[in-house]
Amino acid sequence: MTKEPKEIMQEAIDSGLTDFYVAFSGGKDSGVVLDIMQKEFPEQFKGVLFCDTGIGTNDTKNFIKEYCEERKYPLHIVSPEDVIRKRNTNRGSAGESYSYEALVLNYGFPKQAFHTVTMRHLKYFPMRKFIYDRIALGENPCIVGGIRKNESARRKLKWNKYFYNDGKMWFVSPIFFKEDDWVYKYYIENGIKRSPVYDTLHISGDCLCGCFAQKNELELLKGFHPEVYEEIKRLEKLIKEKGTEEAKESTTWGGHGVTTHESDDDAENFVCNDCFFDREGKEEDTKRFDSELEEIEKKLEGL
Asked: Is residue 173 a contact partner of residue 162, using CB atoms and an 8 Å limit?
């Protein structure tokens, strides 16, 4: 059984949720969801939620800011820098943040097996803080995402969670059952834009933690997004100087053989959607999308 976006959103509203924030990283799917929310549920739509992970491209952040300003979407930016440890642990001291720098100084550059921890530090904890702050203001908030069932063969067979909660955190994906063709058509007909980083890295560029980075990606960053390249090089040096003994065992960013991931962690699936498909698949999807967009634009010019 499938459901339409309006049906899924109505289910979330009927459950008692009243304030919806679209998690937007500049991709086409979350862009489509953002447009649907603003047009179909203007009273419940309270704005865009963007997570500045501390290891993303300037182009992504600038695109998000400009797109929201252009369309008059309220923008809420959260960061792991704003989430503070409450007590001392063997991984950090009370008063420290969950920043990317703190992460790599404690653990070294993350690999695929460490993605769940990385996701929680860089995205989940900042989002959770935001949601808890909204609850304290009297809201019944929910994060809206662009995850889709048919993006992944594994998800297509085993995953039906378009509406999910983790404690006080609620997530909903209104286009969960929609196919690529529907998304492409909606995107084009409604004049939606995506992050320019898709043209260089074939992903949104909001989080370049390195868990699934291929060997050539560092050179791509050097050429197209030098500010991220320089930050990675700075951290490589810093780990060697100030990192824990564990961190010093992983002082090189990326270059992993495994570039695909499917998680059984529900929050991970919602929060880090970009990480669950191999980069070749993402690149192929981007090329197909660009080709179809070009064909449609040619037809429009001929009218």
From this structure: yes
Are the C-beta atoms of residues 116 and 270 closer than 8 Å to each other?
no
What is d(CA 44, CA 176) in angstroms, rounded to the nearest whole number?
19
Q: What is the pLDDT of residues 257-296, one digit of tens each?
A: 554 555 556 666 677 765 544 444 445 555 555 555 555 4
SS3 22: strand
Over residues 86-116, the pLDDT tens digits come to 888 777 778 889 999 999 999 999 998 888 8
CB 215 within 8 A of CB 56: no
Token digits of residue 209: 């933690």
Q: Which helix (H) or strand (E) holds 107?
A: helix 100-107
Q: How many whole angstroms from its chain centre is CA 193? A: 16
Quickly name the fold that domain 5-302 has.
Answer: Rossmann fold (3.40.50)
Alpha-carbon distance of 126 to 120, in angstroms, equals: 8
Per-domain residue ranges of the chain: 5-302
